[in-house]
Sequence to fold (245 residues):
Amino acid sequence: MEEIAIKVENLTVCYKSLKPYSIKKNFLRLHRNKKDIFEALHGVSFEVPKGQILGIIGKNGSGKSTLLRALAGIFSADEGKIDRFGNTISLLAIGVGFQKELSGRENIILSGMLLGFSETEIIEKMPDIIKFAGLGKFIDMPVRTYSSGMYSKLAFSITAVLETDIILIDEVLSVGDQRFKKKSYRKMKELINNEERTVIIVSHSIGTLRKLCQKVMWLEGGEIMMLGDAGEVLDKYQAYMDSET
Fold:
């Protein structure tokens, strides 16, 4: 019987947004602010066995990034539950996890500690992280000065070197220069080949998911349209997208 790394049951995640009203009306309290509730995910259930590489695909707004953030514990469930079975987990996503006023070096330490590593372990791995990121003098500059490509290089390098049990990847492999894309792809293949590690990848690239993943989940409107063998799901998704154009 295969060991389960993550189990998701009936997961629903909602966003709440205030309807716009005029300043005058709000000030006079003639109307209370009303809230629109948008279900980004609705009743999502699935399991990921330990060591599996699961891809997630879907159009913009389908709930892919929301699901990753819920799995990482950044977003809480409005309904349902997520069981990580005590596994360490990291999320690779642009705009998540760094303190922009701190330097790249300082963010390595902070990110590593948030992932559950000791300061000693992080400092021991620091040279490898810095070398892989290839940021040169920018490693000691505030992250707010980084381009999106530099940001993704540092984020990927931290997660690639400080290896967690579960790695969540949100489009990061598609950012950066060609040389780094090739290097990060090779490293990802190396991480994936470790049968103890579980990987979940969100991408719009059918080719990337076809190469890397064993299973693929197709999300549409916050619900699972299809979950199964990568080739079969991606073929159906490709046909669907072709019919939309």
Observations:
- The radius of gyration is 20 Å.
